[in-house]
């Protein structure tokens, strides 16, 4: 029995069978995986932020109790809830608790304001919102109250307050629109019997990072099967072990920090995740020294700021073995790639990825990843052996290796369509299911990919 959400495009049966047979999909929901990790790694540290430390067993118990609290306060299986949280343990707990209820988290960047949040609530028909009452001077509660007043969907708001502060909502508060407000810290109840759900269902929604001029963000439905595979495969590629410590310096709700391998990939091996709420270089470098961080993911510009601050920081970063560089212009990323091994003394891996799925990474046995021999190459390879890549011109004709074209892809963790966007999907996906990434790239005879940048116009392809 399928549990595919209405408005989502499922993988065709022949591909479902292929990915199951290959062992990519294993039929476990992400929240159920956490139960297994709690049994396997129970006393090991799972999450760290400043003085807060949670073991796998403690994290799972917190998730169980928050899930029961969400049910007690009216959230039901299949409902959607917008999660707009900084890099704090409560983000991870909330996301897993919502999934354990059977609700679907919608990851929303902290930078989004009323216009974007209102659109996301409307398109997902979100019944809940989880976020700070105020954060860095912005009143999220007032924003959400305005959103709730615009429609009939948003009826449960859970406000997060940093430790040591109190919520403006001492208990249940109901506004004139009928929206109920609860302090997130009050969402707690005795755990209930686990629910059985299909891993082919949507685990959470990401927002597309490249809207190509679209007024509103597009909703990217990620299933339990596809995302568990992505995180596990990325962790295997990096040879992560239980001794690794991952620093989430990018926003935890981003695909890079959550599952490339990020938080999820680190959990699969029993490693520790360190969250940094304010990712200024000084705080990140201090966290590396204190927690003996081994792996992190940065945008090239942030990595450059780290390198510029490093001589004055006097932080011991010898524990670092790998920095992933995600995104950024080719020139900027290449310059940073050459500095990281020399100045941080660790390997570097170039990472290209999209919320919609495809990940390409430089291999760790390539010269690019070796501190002793930095190189200018940016060739990377798809994460999965079942990632199918095409490079095409403006007319959809295959380009030979070395010739630039638009990168098209399909695979076991690349979506087949945006949520509730049928008209756009006819343009963003080919009839045989390839996702048009909007990225300019070339291929190599060995199956590698060189990402050149965004595809500005199809006219560019016609002229190349």
Describe the protein's architecture and organization.
This protein has 464 residues and is of the alpha/beta class. It folds into two domains: 30-41 and 56-197, Rossmann fold; 229-463, 3-Layer(aba) Sandwich (Rossmann fold). It is built from 14 helices and 23 strands. The protein has helices at residues 13-21, 30-41, 56-72, 89-101, 114-124, 140-150, 224-237, 255-259, 262-269, 281-291, 300-313, 330-344, 422-428, 458-463; strands at residues 45-49, 52-55, 80-83, 104-107, 128-132, 134-135, 138-139, 156-160, 173-174, 180-183, 202-207, 219-223, 245-248, 272-275, 295-298, 322-326, 347-353, 359-361, 381-382, 388-392, 405-410, 435-443, 449-454. The protein has a nine-stranded mixed β-sheet with strand order 2-1-14-13-15-16-17-18-19, with helices on both faces. Helix 12 (330-344) links the parallel strand 16 and strand 17 (347-353). Mean pLDDT is 90; it is low at 367-377.
């Amino acid at each position: 029995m399928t549990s595919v959400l209405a408005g989502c495009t499922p993988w065709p049966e022949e591909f479902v069978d292929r990915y199951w047979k290959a062992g990519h999909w294993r039929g476990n929901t992400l929240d159920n995986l956490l139960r297994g990790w709690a049994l396997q790694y129970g006393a090991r540290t799972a999450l760290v932020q400043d003085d807060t430390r949670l073991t796998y067993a403690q994290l799972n118990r917190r998730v169980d109790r928050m899930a029961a609290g969400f049910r007690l306060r009216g959230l039901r299986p299949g409902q959607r809830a917008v999660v707009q949280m900084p890099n704090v343990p409560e983000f991870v707990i909330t996301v897993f608790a919502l999934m354990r209820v059977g609700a679907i988290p919608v990851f929303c960047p902290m930078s989004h304001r009323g216009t974007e949040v209102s659109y996301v609530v409307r398109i997902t028909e979100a019944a809940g919102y989880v976020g700070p009452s105020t954060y860095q001077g912005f009143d999220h509660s007032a924003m959400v109250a305005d959103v709730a007043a615009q429609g009939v969907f948003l009826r449960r708001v859970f406000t997060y307050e940093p430790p040591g502060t109190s919520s403006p909502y001492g208990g249940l508060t109901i506004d004139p629109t009928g929206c109920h407000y609860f302090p997130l810290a009050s969402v707690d109840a005795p755990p209930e019997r686990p629910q059985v759900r299909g891993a082919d269902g949507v685990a959470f929604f990401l927002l597309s990072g490249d809207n190509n001029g679209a007024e509103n963000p597009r909703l990217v439905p990620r299933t339990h099967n596809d995302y568990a595979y992505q995180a596990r495969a990325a962790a295997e590629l990096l040879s992560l072990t239980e001794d690794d410590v991952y620093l989430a310096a990018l926003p935890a709700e981003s695909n890079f920090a959550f599952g490339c391998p990020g938080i999820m990939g680190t959990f699969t091996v029993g490693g520790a995740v360190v969250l940094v709420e304010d990712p200024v270089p000084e705080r990140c470098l201090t966290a590396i020294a204190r927690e003996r961080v081994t792996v992190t993911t940065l945008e090239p510009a942030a990595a450059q700021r780290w390198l510029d601050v490093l001589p004055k920081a006097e932080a011991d970063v010898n524990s670092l073995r790998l920095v992933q560089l995600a995104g950024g212009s080719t020139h900027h990323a290449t310059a940073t790639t050459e500095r990281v091994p020399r100045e941080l003394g660790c390997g570097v891996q170039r990472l290209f990825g999209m919320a919609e799925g495809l990940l390409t990474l430089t291999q760790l046995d390539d010269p690019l990843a070796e501190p002793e021999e930095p190189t200018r190459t940016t060739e990377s390879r798809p994460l999965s052996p079942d990632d199918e890549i095409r490079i095409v011109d403006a007319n959809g004709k295959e380009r030979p290796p070395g010739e630039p074209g638009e990168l098209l892809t399909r695979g076991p963790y690349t979506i087949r369509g945006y949520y509730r966007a049928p008209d756009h999907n006819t343009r963003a996906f080919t009839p045989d299911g390839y996702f048009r990434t909007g990225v300019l790239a070339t291929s190599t005879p060995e199956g590698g990919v060189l990402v050149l940048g965004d595809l500005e116009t199809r006219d560019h392809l016609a002229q190349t």
